[in-house]
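Much of our argument rests on the idea that a fold can be written as discrete symbols. Part of our work consisted of pairing the sequence of a single chain with a tokenised description of its backbone. The amino acid sequence and the backbone structure tokens for this protein are reproduced below.
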Amino acid sequence: MNLLLLLSALLSALTGVGARVGSPQPVQAVAQEQAVRLAPATIAARATMRPVQALPSLVMLASAAALAVPAFAAVPAWVDRRRE
């Protein structure tokens, strides 16, 4: 079954079935032209407003460095392991 699917895929790839691109239908081309004509000629440019984030002060940076950080490396990983 897999060989049949493989040969079918190879045959369709070699013949190019499904690779053809047809010309656009006239109704679609007319609709595209109307959409282009209805588009506004000019768009007013607006400046984007983004929130401003304040930089941390030196006092905040110094206090952040003094925070207690748990020392995970102080306890080896094998200490809490169950032994049976």
Summary: The longest helix spans residues 2-15. The mean pLDDT is 72. The radius of gyration is 34 Å.
